[in-house]
Each structure stands twice: as structure tokens, then as C-alpha cells.
Amino acid sequence: MRELSTPAELIAYRKEMTESVGFVPTMGALHTGHISLIKQSVAENDKTIVSIFVNPTQFLEGEDLDSYPNKIAADLKICSLAGVDAVFLPSINAMYEEDELTITAPKVKGFILEGFNRPGHFDGVLQVVLKLFNITSPTKAYFGKKDAQQLFMIQNMVKHLFLDVEIVPCEIIRESDGLALSSRNIYLSEEERVRALTLSSSLKLATKMIMNKKFNCASIKSSMQEVLKDTKLEYVEIVDREFNHIEEIEIKNTIILVATFVGTTRLIDNIWI
Ligand code: PAF
Q1: Are residue 124 and residue 29 in the same domain, yes or no?
Q2: What is the CATH number for 86?
Q3: In terms of residue numbers, what domain contains 230?
Q4: Is the CB of residue 154 below 6 angstroms from any atom belonging to ligand 1?
């Protein structure tokens, strides 16, 4: 497995290849969710490249940029065992200059939900993902559905900027008790870990209501809010798959999303109906 640390090195490595390349961008602290994206890429492409870069431009002031979990040795081992061909580990200076052009997320759908609660977050995500796509020139790139709005933003960037890459959405991976995997779960105390289960429980309740033909979004949201009452809720929202607000559930065209703080840890989860 190659370890590359500058864009120039990765561009040169990529130029040697004529085969299909799968790309999995990450911020490290790899867990089973990342491993499933990597395995899918390894299965579907001749070569797989993983990037590990904690991108400063997508963190807001006061967020966990400085304390973001760093497990480089374990991450490299995971990548090597999973059959990754190259890992890209750039420094901030290798990726950014002082005064650069910036990218702004779409003014409406980039500034609702995650974009409303973390203003500027998607600008940073899109900026780094575009840089990474340009350096890697992937055939396919793999993103988890857990960051549903991020996935939607990236699919839109590919469409709007006519980028030549196929975005592959990947299923959410959960612990056996329902907690969606996240690098930030390690911040949770034992008691908070139990409270964090209310995210997936609220989504399970919503699914049950829909199975019982209760399609009214306001009533589903209020039942979910009740389950989440012991957390500091940011939002429960129900949108169609284009992120338009909806009043009634549309089967095969709905995403139910939740974002909440358990203690000081911000968690998100969702379900695709
Ligand atoms: O989802 C993430 O881990 C990050 O937002 C990404 C896509 C690697 C960009 O930094």
C-alpha cells in the first residue's frame, strides 16, 4: 500500500493508472462504517484510494477540529488489511493556500438543516471534496447515507460542475443496538451512549408509524420529539429526496433526519423511507 502526502505525488501516481479507481474520502478514525465503504470500493474497482484529512474549512469556530480523534497508525492498518492501494495523507499546507477562491453551497438547500445549524460547513466540505476529486480523478467515489445532506450536496456539485465521477451512496452501518456508527461516538460517556440510542429509537418509531399508515409528517415529528426529549434537539425534519420540506410521507421518496446534542456531542442520524 502506497502512502502519499502531497497532491503532486497522488496526481503522478494516478497518471500511471489506466484502470478504474474507487475513492473513499475520510477524516480518519476509521470505523466499520468506513470499512464497508472501502470494501465496496475494493470490490467494484481495480484500485482504491482512501484519503485521510481532517479538513479545517468544514469546522465552525468552537467545534471539535483540535480534538478530532486521530488514529493514523490504526487507520493505515485497516486500509492495508482492506486491500486499499494508496492512502493520501496531506498536511493542511499541502491542501490550502492563504488566500484562495472559495466555493459556496447552494443558497437554499445548502443553508437548511445541517447548513443552518453549521453555517459555512458545506462550503468547506464542497471545497475539499472538489480538490480531492481533482487530485484523485476517481471513477467512483463512496459516501455514507448517514451524512444524507452532505451526500446530496456532493451529488449536486457533481451535476452543477459537470464532474466526471459516479457518486455511490452507501448504507448506514449501525451497532447491534441501533446506534449509527460515527467517529464522534467515542466522545460519549456510558450514560450518554445509552441516551444516544434515542436517535435510532425515534427513527424506528417513525418507521412503525409509517407502517401503520400514519403519513402525517407533523404528527410523526412530534412523536419523535417526545422520544428525544432528554437530548438537546437541533432538528427533526422530514424531506423528500431532493431535500424539499414535505407534509405527507412519500414512500420511496422520503428522508427523516435528526440532529441532537447528547451531552456535548453532536450526533446525526436518518432513515430513508
Ligand atoms: O464525511 C466526511 O468524513 C467529510 O465531510 C469528508 C467527505 C471526508 C470531507 O472532509
Answers
A1: yes
A2: 3.40.50.620
A3: 183-267
A4: no
Active site residue 34: yes
Distance CA 266, CA 89 (A): 26
Q: What is the position in ligand 1's atom list of the atom closest to the CA of 55?
A: 10
Angle CA 173–177–182, to nearest 5: 40
CA–CA separation, 36 and 120 (whole Å): 29
Report the CATH number at residue 234.
3.30.1300.10
pLDDT tens digit sequence for 151-169: 999 999 999 999 999 999 9
The DSSP H or E segment spanning 47 is: strand 47-52
- For the beta carbon of residue 151, count every other beta carbon within 10 angstroms: 17
pLDDT tens column, 93-138 = 999 999 999 999 999 999 999 999 999 999 999 999 999 999 999 9
State if residue 27 touches ligand 1 by the CB under 6 angstroms criterion: yes
Q: Structurally, how many domains does the chain consist of?
A: 2
pTM, full prediction: 0.97
Of 109, 135, 170, which residue sits at a domain end?
170
Strand partners, 183: none
145 Cβ closer than 6 Å to some ligand 1 atom: no
Residue 145 CA to residue 269 CA, distance in Å, equals: 9
Gap between the Cα atoms of 257 and 272, Å rounded: 9
